[in-house]
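== Folding the chain ==

***
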Amino acid sequence: MATYEHILVDQQDGIVTLTFNHPENLNAMTAAMGDEVTDVVRTLNQDHSARVLILTGAGRAFCAGGAKGTLQSRTTGGGSGNSEPPKAFYQRYLSVRQLEIPTIAAINGPAVGAGFCVALACDMRIAAANARMGLNFVRLGIHPGMAGTFTTPRIVGLAKACEVIFTGKLYTGEEAFAMGLVNRVVPLEKLMDEAGALAREIASNAPVAVRLAKRALYRGEADLLDAALEVESEYQAHTWTTEDAKEGITAMTEKRAPKFRGV
């Protein structure tokens, strides 16, 4: 496995652990980090010794979503100019959905916005009890992205997805488990042990059967996901041009409640 600048990759006994590795900014997403994720996916799909992937974050966060500077710059572009870059950005990280092996997100801390969307793109999620996670897009004045409107209702059902997306609330691990957003919740100190145990249980099974079972479970979803990304890119590009988006990002930077006016 190659050495990367923005992520860590470890492979032992068929279990691959991919760690977002920018703890100094809560593992905020960048295009460069996403390119490395895409490269790992490409490599693992050619590696028949790999059986399960665990995705987690270095330090105290899983992933804080888009880098703050990137979010601020998005409010200065025009709608049509903003449309394609978000989709291209999403696809880097959503490449985890193209993995032929099962994926487990081990949510060790804040997983916010697009950062939580990547966890939702995994097959399973285990969360630390004190982790905070949610899709806070509307609280920033922007439309959800990173396939959040696609994955969330498929995991928790439409009504709960509406609550998650329309409120933009951040949930604790316990609350997320109660809603069905995560499969399991454990104390932080036991998180990686629990993820590892689940990964080993899966890895002990017949790998061809497991890969084909995953393919069957997601059969026909690729085109639907691509269509969802088109819509999200278009709608998010529009919201980036609004005064509410500027207010939402400014309020986040100033650590105050936003005052949205619907313009």
Remarks:
- The domain at 7-189 is CATH 3.90.226.10 (2-enoyl-CoA Hydratase; Chain A, domain 1).
- The CA atoms of residues 16 and 191 lie 16 Å apart.
- The radius of gyration is 18 Å.
- The longest strand covers residues 7-12.
